[in-house]
Amino acid sequence: MSELLHVKDLVVKYKTDLETVSAVNGISFSLNKGETIGLVGETGAGKTTTAMTLLRLLPERTGKIERGEIIFNGENLLEADKKRMREIRGEKIAMIFQDPMTALDPVMVVGDQIKEALVFHNRGKLTNEQIDARVEEVLELVGIPASRKNDYPHQFSGGMKQRVVIAIALVCEPDLLIADEPTTALDVTIQAQVLIMMKELRDRLGTSMIMITHDLGIVAQVCDKVAVMYAGEIVEQGTLEDIFAGDRHHPYTVGLFGAIPNINDDAERLNPIDGLMPDPTNLPTGCSFSPRCPHCTERCTLEHPAVHTVNGHSISCHLFEKEVEG
């Protein structure tokens, strides 16, 4: 498979007159055509900021890309001007935003909202009749009758609103789809339906996907690769098999798995990760996870760990240094 996206040493900060928030701290990952990668981590890990940076949608006054590269189809998006980014958004890279309740315009019928991106990127390729037919086609594709294209968002349930948001993202058949926790606001039954639908659409259209979530169960269902994020860094990265079936894991990944409920387990309580995510305006010296890590040593509090890679499975932790060197 050929490479579609390559992110290298990306650093993003939010700066105000009072403080600087270190949101993304030197992350690197790649994605091939037709693949799905899961960005996993707690709230505040930097997942959504990463997605917004890929689309160059950071707040202009406060969001600053300090360094890095985002190579998409051979083009560095950090060097693209505003006009070029408007051409890319929607047509080449689309995003399913986190909350379908606020992602839709309440005073526009859903058909017109789906049509917007298609009209903007049309450039004379389609007639008005063909555009309307495409809107109806994509609504049917996500499981909504085409006859409802003239309904307003308040006339849809939460699950159907999410399907409309997915239709908006898919109407131009983008090469890359970014899904930012697309099932968080949905009940369990609708979650399952939406995930099945997204997998089917991905396979049918050959779209690559970045799935942003804190739910490892979703990752297991839809992803080929996984990047575990903590405090703006990728602390572990590998294939789905590496993360779910391997025997080498970052202590944070171990903690995430320990917090998953298991109905077959006799244990009375979950095993939560002690402590909280560090303050992004004042990150710890050394390893950012060290204040919460059960294996923390003095070196962890003083020296940032290097990335140690074995057979493509990378972990940023001092625990694995001897193993790799040996």
SSE diagram, text form:
Blueprint: E1 3-15, E2 20-32, E3 36-40, H1 47-54, E4 63-72, E5 75-76, H2 82-88, E6 93-96, H3 100-103, H4 110-120, H5 128-141, H6 158-170, E7 176-180, H7 188-205, E8 208-213, H8 216-222, E9 225-230, E10 233-239, H9 240-245, H10 251-258, H11 298-302, E11 307-310, E12 313-316, H12 321-325
Parallel strand pairs: 3-8, 3-9, 6-7, 7-8
Antiparallel strand pairs: 1-2, 1-4, 4-5, 9-10, 10-12, 11-12
Descriptive report:
With 326 residues, the protein is an alpha/beta fold. The protein has one domain (3-92, 174-325): P-loop containing nucleotide triphosphate hydrolases (Rossmann fold, 3-Layer(aba) Sandwich). The chain is built from twelve helices and twelve strands. The strands form two sheets. An eight-stranded mixed sheet has the order 6-7-8-3-9-10-12-11, with helices on both faces. The protein has a four-stranded antiparallel sheet with strand order 2-1-4-5, covered by helices on one side. Helix 4 runs parallel beside helix 6 and helix 5 (128-141) crosses helix 6. It is globular and about 65 Å long. The model has no long low-confidence stretch (mean pLDDT 90).
